[in-house]
Each structure stands twice: as structure tokens, then as C-alpha cells.
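We give the chain.
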Amino acid sequence: MEIRKMLGVVVVTLIMFNNGESESQHSLVANGLAVADYVHGKGLKLGIYSAAGYFTCANVMPGSLGYGEQDAKTFASWGVDYLKYDICNNGGTKPIDRGDMHPALWGYQVGNSWIITDDIRDNWDSMLSKADMNEVYADYARPGGWNELPQAPLIIGCDVRNMTEDTKEILSNTEVIAVNQDPLGKQGKKVRMESTLEVWAGPLSEYRVDVVLLNKYSDLRASITALWEDIGLHPSTVVESRDLWEHNTLERQFSGKLTDTVEPHSCKMYVLKPIA
């Protein structure tokens, strides 16, 4: 059994099954209860991975197809805190037999977050394409049920022992995390696009708004403007603007729009707080 550590969570990535012909023969071989006790004893949460298929997506580990309820009860008896449930190698069984093809439409009934794209890759184009696909389902996100990416529970899929300082700084930015964890629970959307320049925005609690100015250009600095009419503010509203990357409140107050210059392959992120 292989265990991968993530920030605050230990995820069991390999579980062996005894797949017999009867339900009583389908039992978990790994001593999950001992693992759970060990992990919880370290003050961490325990996550586990399975799939609604004959095998998981790696094609080497048996899945839970036909034994979903039994395995769920086993995970619960171990005290598992988090389950990632994939769908691969299901012999042609349609997801619609268990729910619509798009989990954003029904996932909140059975889980707290869901993936609506294929796996993200470690490159700029993959990251942005996933954000675009995710944004289509923004209106379905709500407290307790999230599209995995914006506004969703934060999960770091890397070896935290080898993170660069830049990565640590990004992932530990408490002001950005606060936007992600805002109690209003409204996922931001793309509200304006001009070529490869974009404005994303979403409402926050206490009548605030978060705004992202995104420059997709690979080699050009660009001026990007967020208009109040696009981000849900009355044109006459005066706001103070907090830069979440620089951790400072801009001296100037803004009304009607906010404009800034953004470096290529970069973004600026603000929280706007109405003051008048």
C-alpha cells in the first residue's frame, strides 16, 4: 500500500481488493482501520481513492463497480474523511444510469465536489482550458457542492516536501484563500473577454466583489479594464481596492471602472469593497 502526503491530508493511493464472485468475497485487503488510526494520530485527515469501474483509471487497481455500497460502508467504518471516486473501466455502463452525464447537475446530492473536465496538466494552456470549461457550470456551484477548481475545497496534488518558494507563497496566500472560502459561496465567472485579455469576477460576502484581470498573451504587457456594469456594481459605486498578490490597499478609490497593466501570462486579483 502506497501513501501520498498532501497538505493536511494523507491520501491512500493503492488499495487491494479480493474480488470474488459474491459480495461477501469482495473485501478490502488493506488494513484501513490501522492506517486511519495512524493518520488521525498525526492530526491529519485520511483520504482514499476508488472508482466506479472494474478497475481504477490506472488499470491496475480493482474498483468498486457493483460493490459501491459495501465499499462505502467499509470506508466509513475505517473513519475515512475524504473519498475521491473516479469513473473508468466500467464496461460501458453509462454514468446516466447513476446520474446525468454532467455531475455539476446532480453531484451535490451525493458529494461535496466533482470534476467536470479531464485531468489538468502542468502547462499554461491546460490550466486555462480547464478554467474555461469549469466556468460554464459556475451557476451550479453552491455551499456544500462545488465544481472542482474555483471556490472548491483546496486540495494540493503535489509532494509538499519539494515545493518551490514561489509555489509555497502562492498556496499560502491567505487573502486569496479567503476569497476561495468566502461564506457566500458564489463561483466567479468570466464577465468580459477581448482577444486574450479577460476579466473574471464574482460576488463576495459583505457586498464585496472579487476581480481578476487575466493576460493570456505570452509576450505582451497589456492594460485591462474591469467595468462596474460587468462585475455587478452600480456605476456610481465608489470602492476601495485591495491587491491580493501585493497585500496592499490602493491609495486611490475607484468608481465606474478599474484599470491596471498586467504582465504576460499573468493576472492581478483584487477585492473591491464599496465605501459609498
